[in-house]
Amino acid sequence: MNTSMRVNPNPNTRRRVVSVLLALSASAATLVVPGAAAAQESSGPTATVPPIRWGACPKAEPPYPDPSPKAQCATVKVPLDWSKPKGPEIGLFVARYRATDPARRIGVLMSNPGGPGAGGADDALYADDPIGGYAPAMLQRFDMIGFDPRGIGRSQNAGCDEAILDSIPARPRSAAEFERLRTLNGRLADSCLKQTGPLAAHMDGESVARDMDSIRAALGERRISFLGHSYGTFLGERYARLFPGNLRALALDSAMDPDRPNAERYLTDGSVTIDNTLKRLAAWCEKDMACALKGKDLTAVTDKLFARADAGTLRDPGPNGPTRTKVDADQLSDFLTFALGKGSQEETARQLAALHTGKGEVYWTPTGTDPVSRLVLCRDYDFRIRDYAQYQAIRKRVAKAAPHVRYNAQALDVILGCQGWTMPPKPRPALVKGDLPPVLLANATHDLATPLPGAQRMARSFPQASLFTMDVVGHWLYRRGGTEKAMRVIDTYLTSPKG
343-384 pLDDT, tens per residue? Predict the structure, then answer.
């Protein structure tokens, strides 16, 4: 899950190329088999879907390359509100890349790249891309199916008044600021409803999972295999709850917590992950000459930076020494989150050294979440905080659990973005009776966006699941390069006989 950007993703962006721009360092891998799930109930309404009529795919907007000439595109109509299956409909943009070896074809592999807010049709549009696409053996065996989820990309893009974003306090420091944040978030939500219409209130994961089954039915397939990344793992879990008998295989890469954690648990999991990543960097720094702070205790350096920030004496470094620009503790936590979670070890240490000495350069990352991610996450999770006093108490307990970084900025952005949201969280759907295939999950041990504890809870939510982990820093393991081993493990699972 990546919700740190405020701009809506370009629907023609090649999602794999964008997603893999997270620095990862590969090491050991392990396999863990967790326990069983709860009882199952009814799935609710469904809809009859006519067969898909495939056609040519639209050209991409420069500078992005055109889709593969082998890709096909179509629109699938689904109910806007799944509680009213015969009510108004919306169109979903769907793409297909057909199996290159029909005689050995296994079936359909549907996928979602997460976000939330990323268009997923690119998985099929660029399925044969030599850098970001699938391995040739996978292209031989599956029809690759990608789709832009409702309200995203080419599936009737949602719109909101993004001018409101600049007025929302990024880190409220008083009861008045906290209430202002809630009020402005409410206005932002109302603007989404005004600009997008009723669809804005129906972009939750359960609705998308039901859309996925409509696509399955329109394809004429009895079962699908599904590969979800980041927030896409949440969609895979929702699909498994609602349509277990329609799954041939389920692979979840960088898995979210499916158990609707409250704000404190969500923030704690992410913050402890960042704190442990700093300790990992400190251990590397002790023995590697490439570290700009070689010979120093990196955690102690960071603690002193926070002390200076609290005292108002920490300054933004410059080429010749400290500037007059103050750096506060929130800015320091924000920097640590994104530098530790997405930057290289050498670069993160260099920037910490610049803060420590006052000489050098630090790259500051803007905070905040885009409205599309709020339309999704604030419905799927219940992050509501009662008032500023509870918010302060949560922050203090989280800082105690993660003392060297204080908090995970990306997780806090998500939580604060949901305060005052006028479309309330949607209940988790009940489990439907049916046999699930064994599920495969993959997760980094140091993932700032989808921390390992959430992936472990995701694994425990299935009757049979294996959790493959890699001792790396970063997000999204299904990629070529440093985490290619995870890609091979997932591909082997997906192509193995499942009945």
Answer: 799 999 999 999 999 999 999 988 888 999 999 999 999 999
Distance separating alpha carbons of residues 228 and 222, to the nearest angstrom: 19
Q: What is the DSSP string of 28-58?
A: -EEEE--------B--------PPP--BPPP
Residue that is written with structure tokens 């009662």 in the block: 386
Tokens of 118: 């990323």
* pTM, full prediction: 0.91
User: Which segments within 218-265 are labelled E, that is strand?
Assistant: 224-229, 247-253
Q: What's the distance, Cα to Cα, between the start and end of the chain in Å?
A: 32
Strand 465-473 vs strand 439-446: parallel, antiparallel, or unpaired?
parallel
Q: Rounded to whole angstroms, how far apart are CA atoms 293 and 302?
A: 11
Q: Where in the chain is the domain with CATH 3.40.50.1820?
A: 15-158+203-260+434-495
State how far Cα 191 lies from the chain centre. 24
Give the Cβ contact number of residue 101 at 10 Å.
11
HSE-CB for 291 with a 13 A CA cutoff: 18
Closest by Cα among 93, 105, 114, 141 to 227: 114
In contact, 326 and 312? CB cutoff 8 Å: yes
**386-403 residue pLDDT tens:** 999 999 999 999 999 999
CATH ID of 15-158+203-260+434-495, from 3.40.50.1820, 3.40.50.12280, 3.30.572.10, 3.10.50.40: 3.40.50.1820
Question: What's the burial of 354, exposed, middle or buried (CB within 10 Å: 0-12/13-18/19+)?
Answer: buried
Cβ neighbours of residue 262 closer than 8 Å, sequence gap 6 or more: 382, 383
Q: Which residues does 435 contact at the CB level (< 8 Å), separation at least 6?
A: 244, 245
Q: State residue 498's pLDDT score.
A: 76
- DSSP class of residue 257 equals P
Asked whether residue 340 carries a pLDDT value surpassing 90, the answer given is: yes
Give the start-end residues of each E strand in 149-265: 224-229, 247-253
As a whole number of angstroms, the distance between CA 145 and CA 150 comes to: 16
Q: What is the DSSP letter of 367?
A: P
- The CA distance from 138 to 339, in Å, is 34
Q: CA-CA distance, 377 to 398, in Å (whole number)?
A: 21
User: Distances from the Cα of 281 to the Cαs of 273, 406, 466, in angstroms?
Assistant: 12, 16, 29
Going along 178-335, which residue ranges are E strands? 224-229, 247-253, 315-318, 321-326
Locate all alpha helices (DSSP H) within 92-135, ordered by sequence: 122-125
Q: Which of 131, 179, 176 is nearest to 21 (CA)?
A: 131
Q: Which residue has the tokens 């350069």?
A: 361
Do 254 and 475 contact (CB within 8 A), yes or no?
Answer: yes
CA distance 79 to 43: 16
Burial class of residue 177 in the structure, from the number of CB atoms within 10 Å of its CB (0-12 exposed, 13-18 middle, 19+ buried): middle
